[in-house]
Recover the amino acids of this structure.
């Protein structure tokens, strides 16, 4: 005996989905605006302060606009309603967007690190002219703004459980780290130690690649039907067994589907009860799981007769 949650999806989860999409879109639009303005100010400061590092940092910031468009597309597709070809929904499209961003982030990290290593090996520290103070100040402003955007985007990503938005948050942090490298290079040049720029780039590379790997692994796990963690499953068992007339829990399986969870449950009840009575028990279990675990999109409950 099973009970599907199609009505719950239509009446209860749709408003939540709409709110999540609005939050993601608002954060993404704000990210685009900040990146465009910050890139413009970085470019002006780089040219005025004779800093090649700051000009390069401006180009890096404008490239983040592309990643934000990927997030918007992924979130939009993930929130589409189920259709004939995708009866279980489109939530995994957000995982696809997260994977794309993770790869893009990894290439960014490798590029920064490779450039730093080449400069160290070849002792090529670029223009030896002393950058102006405006470039140094702009580097600090960039670090503060991008770190702020990281926490702002991260908060929204955790709130709506969006892997793509979390990947974009780490993209903001990679830009903050890039700006730290720019600051180190500009400060080093002003102090007579230009080697600080490539050294900082290599260190920053490690952090960016680590973040990209974490995002990639998390997205892949969500696409391969990974089960919920032990604590969540234990809480689900507790909820099921607390339902009146449930005599036992024979089996429970969970799997993650993007940001949502699918649950298959087999309970046992008195075999002498009528079909209508056991159906009501299954329905009560189904409703209890959906009520207690808002990430559950689909819950199937099967009733077995209790062994005497």
């Amino acid at each position: 005996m099973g009970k599907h949650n199609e009505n719950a999806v239509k009446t209860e989860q749709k408003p939540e989905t709409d709110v999540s999409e609005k939050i993601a879109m608002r954060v993404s639009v704000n990210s685009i605006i900040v990146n465009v303005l910050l890139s413009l100010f970085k470019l002006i400061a780089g040219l005025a302060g004779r800093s090649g590092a700051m000009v390069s940092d401006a180009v890096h910031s404008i490239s983040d606009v592309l990643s934000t468009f990927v997030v918007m597309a992924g979130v939009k597709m993930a929130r589409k309603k189920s259709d004939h070809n995708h009866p279980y929904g489109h939530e995994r499209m957000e995982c696809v967007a997260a994977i794309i961003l993770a790869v893009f982030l990894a290439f960014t990290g490798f590029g920064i690190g490779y450039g730093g290593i080449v400069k160290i090996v070849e002792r090529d520290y670029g223009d030896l002219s002393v950058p102006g103070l405006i470039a140094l100040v702009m580097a600090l402003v960039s670090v503060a703004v991008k770190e702020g955007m990281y926490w702002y985007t991260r908060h929204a990503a955790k709130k709506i459980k969006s892997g793509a938005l979390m990947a974009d948050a780490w993209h903001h942090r990679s830009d903050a780290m890039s700006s730290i490298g720019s600051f180190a290079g500009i400060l080093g040049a002003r102090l007579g130690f230009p080697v600080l720029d490539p050294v900082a780039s290599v260190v920053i590379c490690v952090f960016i690649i680590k973040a990209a790997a974490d995002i990639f692994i998390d997205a892949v796990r969500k696409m391969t039907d990974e089960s919920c963690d032990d604590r969540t499953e234990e809480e689900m068992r507790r909820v099921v067994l607390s339902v009146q007339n449930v005599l036992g829990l024979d089996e429970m399986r969970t799997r993650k589907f993007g940001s949502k969870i699918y649950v298959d449950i087999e309970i046992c009840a008195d075999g002498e009860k009528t079909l209508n009575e056991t159906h009501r028990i299954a329905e009560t279990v189904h409703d209890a799981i959906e009520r207690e675990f808002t990430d559950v999109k689909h819950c199937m409950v099967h009733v077995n007769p209790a062994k005497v």
